[in-house]
Amino acid sequence: MTDLATQRTSQSAQFDGIDRVARLFAPRSIALIGATDKSWWSRAIFDNLHNHGFTGAIHLVNPKGIEVHGQQSVAAISDLPDDVDLAFVMTPTPVTLEVVQKVADHGIRSAVVLTSGFAEVGEEGAQLERALVDLARERDLTILGPNGNGFINAADGITPYGLTIPSPLISGPVGVVLQSGALASAVLGFAQARNVGISLLVSMGNESMLTMTDVMRHLVHDDNTKVIALFIESVRDPDQFLAVAREALAIGKPIVAMKVGRSETGARVAKAHTGSLVGNDRVVDAVFRQHGIVRVDSLEDLVTTAAVLAHCPLPGPRFGFVTASGGACEIIADRGEDEGIVIPPFAPETEERLREIVPPFASPHNPIDVTGYILVKREMMAQSLQAVVDDPNVDVAVVMADLPREEPADPLPALDSATRLSELAHAARKPVFVMQNTLTDITPYGRMVAEKSDYPTVLGGIEHGLTALGRATQWSAAYRGQHHATATQSEPLAVDVPPDGIWAEHVAAGFLQAHGVPVVPYRLVTDADAAVAAAEEFGYPVVVKLAADVEHKSDIGGVKLGLASPQAVRSAYDAVTAAGRAAGAQVAGAVVQPQRSGGVELLVGIVTDPVWGHVLALGMGGIWVEVLSDTTLRVLPVTRDEIRTALGELRGAALLSGARGTTAADMDALVDAVMATADLAGRLGDRLESLEINPLVVDGTRIEALDALITWRQP
Amino acid sequence: MTDLATQRTSQSAQFDGIDRVARLFAPRSIALIGATDKSWWSRAIFDNLHNHGFTGAIHLVNPKGIEVHGQQSVAAISDLPDDVDLAFVMTPTPVTLEVVQKVADHGIRSAVVLTSGFAEVGEEGAQLERALVDLARERDLTILGPNGNGFINAADGITPYGLTIPSPLISGPVGVVLQSGALASAVLGFAQARNVGISLLVSMGNESMLTMTDVMRHLVHDDNTKVIALFIESVRDPDQFLAVAREALAIGKPIVAMKVGRSETGARVAKAHTGSLVGNDRVVDAVFRQHGIVRVDSLEDLVTTAAVLAHCPLPGPRFGFVTASGGACEIIADRGEDEGIVIPPFAPETEERLREIVPPFASPHNPIDVTGYILVKREMMAQSLQAVVDDPNVDVAVVMADLPREEPADPLPALDSATRLSELAHAARKPVFVMQNTLTDITPYGRMVAEKSDYPTVLGGIEHGLTALGRATQWSAAYRGQHHATATQSEPLAVDVPPDGIWAEHVAAGFLQAHGVPVVPYRLVTDADAAVAAAEEFGYPVVVKLAADVEHKSDIGGVKLGLASPQAVRSAYDAVTAAGRAAGAQVAGAVVQPQRSGGVELLVGIVTDPVWGHVLALGMGGIWVEVLSDTTLRVLPVTRDEIRTALGELRGAALLSGARGTTAADMDALVDAVMATADLAGRLGDRLESLEINPLVVDGTRIEALDALITWRQP
Known about the structure:
By secondary structure, chain A is of the alpha/beta class.
């Protein structure tokens, strides 16, 4: 984590105890401060509390003490009863600080501040926000917001939320945290259309005190929540965020996140809107993957994937599909491949069984199409599903079906059929999902049927359904695989950092070698005779390089390659040192190395991301990096397994296993070399800005850094 | 087109006249043959005709002449009146041929055959189907099917369709053709949920006579149809399909297609289900792109993209977005970048104007977030949209909004607001789209509001909406760009094909050179002295290669590189010819070439796709092809512009413009060389199986084929 990130997280550090967060989300009585008939927000919050099951007391504060929303208000906060648990503040910006002061004076311990005009509008607002936070901290008040819509505790029917919540509010397993106010309503509406229930939904606002990470930590420990869904603009406290993610993965509570700011325009937009740091997007991918956070690209996928993750871990990656459409089978096959879903052949006994169920012209293969004959023999679908559920090759069964959209003249057949499917699914020893062909709403009637029959989760369309199943499969694998992962954090290592922040190459080489990173043999020499002696020892041809803290030595004639005779070495020594002096560098002499040829060039780099800290970049060297950007990233610390996986992800990975006449690499030794580099970076901590080995040449068992550059941050 | 494809298309060739297709889809009276209360299909078709506006006569034929679906039937086809235009045949498979005979005898000219049990079930069924087609052809009867659900002519309210059509059937601009029966209902249901109207929907069945291409051709000329949407399993008549696609592009009627069978499992499934050929999927991508066919990957995108394409061509690629959510802005920016949507900065005068509309803390940038203050000042949305519509930098405006889902207590405000937005959109001189945050249904109430207010097209969610807008932008560019494209087809060229189908390299080289493809200088020699003489002429170093029809000469020691002296050339000659003889080859001597170094290696290949015929593959040579599969494809014929674009698509394209110290390529000369190769393939026609130049070395202006292999198909 960077210093900047440390600063950013310090504010939320006081929220380590989760009890105060739990208290904020479970008030028994709520006071609306600034309640007025003139405010759309005030009306919405009041109605929400009344319409969605809040059984506690609702108090209104209006300076005139008049009737508001048909209920008598009090004129002052001090007039409120003593037992108010939560103040919902929607007073004008200029008086908000004073109001919050009075809230604290009255002994109220939690507040939602809806009011905007704080850090999001510029420096003046930011000052006001800091004053608000200072006050709250001093008075032990917990604030959600400002500039946020509040929360919806659907599990307990507590809904102090500033935008209208359409009925019905469906309670369920998904905890939702959003760094966007307006999209909270979009997510809520879409979840309702999908019949996906939520436990708690929180619109974070400015995160002046309570951060997204604090709410995540609360949800990790919340029994009503089986899966956490996030809409992220920026992560303000990366270390804590990742700690919570690790905890969630450890206890098997999945996190799915939509993180925006991928594109350059997006980064610009995010800056305009929140002023927050937006990390490099590929780093975000790497960080999330390493921590078992499922990333999705759309709000539809966020909700659909959360619905599937609520049933995770899945027992395995092998899916069996039952359809009544050959076209759907083909879409499933195409999209399944994209999403890494395994669609294995059915076991022979299953095919045998299916042959007896489906018409003779149907193929009893996975995915199975029972054909349009379903209209004649409706029981085929359930029978086929049962056969697929019983198949030992199948871990998860999916049946293409839909809930009825409107009440038919005779509702019983549809209800019976739904009940039979539900019973089959509940009796199955493996997960069973229902999937629609396309993403259309589950209508109110369909929802009623689903509730009555305790219907399985219905995935909205093949497109989003398979994305969700694929991501859930990946998460399940990450969950199962996590016990092998043991990233080590070694002791800090102190170094003398040069004033200009850069180490000359031979210094870097010596440093790397001293810490276990293999380096091509070299000799620092200070005259031509010593250069020749070194060359004789290594054997010809050799390379002679200027030893000086110059970044691009070859550009100034500081590197001479392929020297095959003592005379050539001698003149090379003279030439490179002269070139160094001509460039005004501090010349320490020259470095002699054996000339290598053959092997595969890798780049092993450590860079510092402003949000996530040290990131390991692995890539194929030369054109692979320069033209193809063929790199893969991992945030530190990493495990040996992760390094091995990362190397396998490179597009040029085949070159490491002997393609194109290369020698197959000694992968254990290669992983050792990368691990040593990563460990070293870990030990150097914040002082290390970047460390680039380019190339690391891999030639069978011979693995050597040929060039290295280390830059430091000034203390 | 291949011979196989020619065979496949011969059946539909008789449908060149589109009148008989138009006749089939516009019957004034329909007879249901095999009508019975016991059949779900019979009931569905009868109800569909009654419920969706068919005003013509419906006749029922049942062998017992009893009352069916509450209407008197006739016992025999011969008992039908004389004016029946269409027979809908749903009799049992064994009697279908006889029934169709009687249909023809009665003078009925069009038939839909719903009955299954034909080519889709195996050879016996295929025989029956051939007999059916022979009969129909002989009797001038046009058949849709068998094994198809019929069609829905929504424009004219004619719905002889075998699955229940839910109400309301929305008439509109999208013509839909599906090679899947069951998915037709899915598409229809989704289109209804999106309030997207269709003109004609056809479920193709087995395409025994009428093919997808025939229906496409009909739709190209159908004034009710503004866009054609296809669900494709396999294209049976590629040449005609592409001819129709070209015609559609020429007249500006977009085609959008979902083509399944991408994955290996998909290909297996498609084989199991249809027995049709499934082409290599990357070739399909290339073919579609070259012919302006928009390809999509989901049923949701198929319908949503069609809805946008109905408003195409778009005036340009620059989009202006109006939202009330910073989060939505960020999603739009991220996804817009994926889809190639341009989101330009607003003009200064627009920013100025927006500053006066939105609150001071809002940023007046594109996409604009008017902020949650919209709840206070609702007119901001329309005002901002007007400003964006007026912006000279914006070609298309998109406003994030939604239709009401349920009737509010006071319906007027929502209706007024919808009307104002509609008026603004209709008055605009550029397209205006409405986009929802997520994909949820347009409810019946919302549809009513949309109809009353003549509301703009509502895109279902940012995810699918931006995909549709991006694809529509690409189509509009293709439509505008098509006039530059003039692919030439040269005169056929006759060649003597060797018995084994492969030409020795030196023969291939001579052949290429004779037809304008630049080849590295070479000399065929038959003794060592001549080899030395050739080397002296070229200058050292040279390459000596065995001249014989051996595919991998270097594997048997038939290639000697870097020969720098007469002696080396002499022994190389002896060695390679000896190696050839040892391998049992017909040795014609050896080929001497100058040894080249430097330059960029390309692969230029022509391969034969079983469906689409000759495909040009361009790739970076060496590791680029072998490890990265860095190739791009074009079906022949191609234009020079397409070749230039294709070269630019290569991941290693930067190497052609001088990256990594390479010499920038003479692109005109390179395009010439590729064009000559493509032209040659066109002239050779079906006889050419493949032609591979690997490498074509490009070194500035020097462009030379260093190695070439041509394989032939036996006549």
